[in-house]
Amino acid sequence: MSDDKPIRSEGGSERAESDHDEITGFLLRRPFLSEVDRAIAQASTQALGKLWLGVVSLPKLRHVNAALGFDAGDNLLREVAAIMQKELPEAFAMGRLEGGDLALASFGPVKRLSRRSAPEAEAKFLGNTVQTLGSHIFMSVRAGICQYRAPDDAAECLRKTQLALVRARDEAGGDLRYYTDDMGQLAETRARLVRELLPAIESDVLTLQYQPQIDLKTGALIGVEALVRWPQPDGSFISPAEFIPIAERSELIVPLGDWVLRKACEQAAYWRGSGLPPFHVAVNVSPVQFYKTDLVTTVRSLLAETNLEPNWLELELTEGAVMGDGDESLLVLRQLRELGIELAIDDFGTGYSSLSYLKRFPVQRLKIDQSFVRNSHENADDRAIARTIIAIGKNLDMKVLAEGAETSDHIQFLASEGCDEAQGYYYARPLDAEVVADFVRSRPPAGASH
């Protein structure tokens, strides 16, 4: 085959209909791989150096299916397939892998998916608003790209492309990523962590530390946030930034979250029994826990089993978790609140909150994301966002707690703006449970001024 006349296979009578996806008209996965393998076998060495594979993913497809029905999701796929055929003419094969993942193969860079060659075109393609069955949907697209390297076959090249796609999904602002060798090493590390995490949970290898939360007016401790740690035999720790995202993707977040909640309740009950003044223990709840488990029954049972007064427990949920299904979220939050526990919105300001829903939620606390606090001394926008969140909290009669308070400048700024509470290295790093009691006794009593 000539370098400048690649075969195209997204249509054509020479292909059996069974080889094609009935929605997009693209090749199914196996025929797509066969087409790429045939191109590899027929291409010259020079041409192979120009072979690229890409996978374009529609992470919102399942939400469209759930909210608008499968017909809307199918229509969205057709629209995106049509866009790909129009905007990516250099592709000689296009395929549908599964769900919302669409693949393409090209001899030469895929210009519409190359930030370096056409950033404005990429922005247009990766940020289209698609109309499906009367609804306008912002097409949030992620893409991974890999350049072919001998002696790979099509399946191996596609595997590497999907590793790039995973990186694009994981990283903030990651719309498109090119495969690099370190991605393969990272995949191996993640696979190992997945294998080892459940045994670590079941054998109590994990441990909790607690970061104090301080009343900015009195200096008293009002709570601690439970933070999970994974110690290793050599004394080191696997960072939560590594294993928590892996737990969320593998749904090991459910047993992990249950373990954290149980241990935090047991520890809070111990502190209560030792005569410490009341303070809440804040536990993070993942969206998977919130929507896929009977969280209300779990919390009710743990409170009874540990004989813990409800006001000792606070659950922290992200904006994305509580805003995912407003009415369902409202019902669950009200049931949790009826148990007597406290509720907080974590990392407020980083998601997509609806203020109309927020005012209806029985939430006692908003937590300002640490990114707005850490740069507040030098970034006017971050200061403005922090001020706005503090104002929202006051107007909705909620406490506002700032994360990431590390310096006296941070504390001064937050106090001057009327923020209620803060946590961060200025007060203390996360503490082992055995140290918390001494820290509590070292702080002014609640209600005192300082």
Number of helices: 18
Question: Largest sheet, described in full?
Answer: 8 strands, mixed, barrel
Please identify which CATH superfamily of the largest domain we are dealing with: EAL domain
In which range does the helix fraction lie?
40-55%
Q: What amount of the residues lies in strands? A: 15-25%
**What general form does the structure show?**
elongated
Mean pLDDT across every amino acid position: 84
Give the termini distance in whole angstroms.
Answer: 81 Å
* Strand neighbour order, sheet with most strands: 9-10-12-13-14-15-16-17
Which structural class is indicated by helix and strand composition?
A: alpha/beta
Count of strand segments: 18
Task: Describe the protein's architecture and organization.
- By secondary structure, the protein is of the alpha/beta class.
- The chain has two domains: 17-179, 2-Layer Sandwich (Alpha-Beta Plaits); 190-442, EAL domain (TIM Barrel, Alpha-Beta Barrel), CATH 3.20.20.450.
- The protein is built from 18 helices and 18 strands.
- It has helices spanning 29-42, 45-48, 61-68, 70-87, 119-126, 154-170, 181-202, 240-250, 253-273, 287-292, 295-306, 319-323, 326-338, 355-358, 370-374, 380-395, 408-416, 433-442; strands spanning 27-28, 51-57, 91-98, 101-107, 129-132, 135-138, 142-147, 176-178, 207-215, 221-231, 237-238, 280-285, 313-318, 342-348, 365-368, 399-402, 421-422, 431-432.
- The strands form three sheets. It has an eight-stranded mixed β-barrel, surrounded by four helices.
- Helix 3 (61-68) packs antiparallel against helix 4 (70-87).
